Amino acid sequence: MERLQKVIAQAGIASRRKAEQLISAGRVRVNGQTVTELGTKVDEARDVIEVDGRVVKAEDKHTYLFYKPKKVITSLSDPRGRKTVANYFRDVPVRLYPVGRLDYDTEGLLLMTNDGELANRLMHPRFEIEKSYLALVQGVPNESALSRLAKGVALEDGVTAPARVSTVRAMSKTAWIRLVIHEGRNRQVRRMCEAVGHPVKKLIRERIGFLRTGGLKPGQYRALTVDEMKKLKEMLFS
């Protein structure tokens, strides 16, 4: 027997947190009866589970590493008709969801999966999954600015956690810097750099945990290898 929200997440319908919201909203039925109590135990082999009238079935799990281009929305749809990450996965036979977000003007690595439990753990703060970014910033940050970025910057939603920061290349009026963080706040790197007086002109996420861009170009993706999936699950489920 498993908790209902876990079964929904493992079926790729939604993350566990979203599954809890679906249950609380009365959108889930078990054997024809609406269930709103979180923690309800179900038997996948015997119980018929429905979300919004759709029968939940366990499906094979698929996880892809995607290089999101700039000017692409990290969403499955957009009311304004802009291109979304879903446009790049039309040939994949399962519905995939982005793990976390990259803003519209940021490019780089994004994980796409139908494994709700995996996605939930990747995004959970307690696992502190590192993300590495290359940022082209206006001006050349001095040691004081780099130190502020590393120690934590006061933003409107609180002080950022310590980060690893280094200068990759300094030009006359701009510089490439690398920031390694484990938080996932909205537009965090851009806001951090803005706060120390060096607005971001270009931003690339080059690494998620041990996963790197490799030879991927914008718009390309690849399935994670068996070894990569094993390593990822050891990090998150051990």
UniProtKB/TrEMBL annotation:
<dbReference type="InterPro" id="IPR018496">
    <property type="entry name" value="PsdUridine_synth_RsuA/RluB_CS"/>
</dbReference>
<dbReference type="InterPro" id="IPR036986">
    <property type="entry name" value="S4_RNA-bd_sf"/>
</dbReference>
<comment type="similarity">
    <text>Belongs to the pseudouridine synthase RsuA family.</text>
</comment>
<dbReference type="GO" id="GO:0120159">
    <property type="term" value="F:rRNA pseudouridine synthase activity"/>
</dbReference>
<dbReference type="InterPro" id="IPR006145">
    <property type="entry name" value="PsdUridine_synth_RsuA/RluA"/>
</dbReference>
<dbReference type="InterPro" id="IPR020103">
    <property type="entry name" value="PsdUridine_synth_cat_dom_sf"/>
</dbReference>
<dbReference type="GO" id="GO:0005829">
    <property type="term" value="C:cytosol"/>
</dbReference>
<dbReference type="InterPro" id="IPR002942">
    <property type="entry name" value="S4_RNA-bd"/>
</dbReference>
<keyword id="KW-0413">Isomerase</keyword>
<dbReference type="GO" id="GO:0003723">
    <property type="term" value="F:RNA binding"/>
</dbReference>
<dbReference type="Pfam" id="PF01479">
    <property type="entry name" value="S4"/>
</dbReference>
<dbReference type="Pfam" id="PF00849">
    <property type="entry name" value="PseudoU_synth_2"/>
</dbReference>
<dbReference type="InterPro" id="IPR050343">
    <property type="entry name" value="RsuA_PseudoU_synthase"/>
</dbReference>
<keyword id="KW-0694">RNA-binding</keyword>
<dbReference type="InterPro" id="IPR020094">
    <property type="entry name" value="TruA/RsuA/RluB/E/F_N"/>
</dbReference>
<dbReference type="InterPro" id="IPR000748">
    <property type="entry name" value="PsdUridine_synth_RsuA/RluB/E/F"/>
</dbReference>
<feature type="domain" description="RNA-binding S4">
    <location>
        <begin position="2"/>
        <end position="61"/>
    </location>
</feature>
<dbReference type="InterPro" id="IPR042092">
    <property type="entry name" value="PsdUridine_s_RsuA/RluB/E/F_cat"/>
</dbReference>
<protein>
    <recommendedName>
        <fullName>Pseudouridine synthase</fullName>
        <ecNumber>5.4.99.-</ecNumber>
    </recommendedName>
</protein>
<dbReference type="GO" id="GO:0000455">
    <property type="term" value="P:enzyme-directed rRNA pseudouridine synthesis"/>
</dbReference>
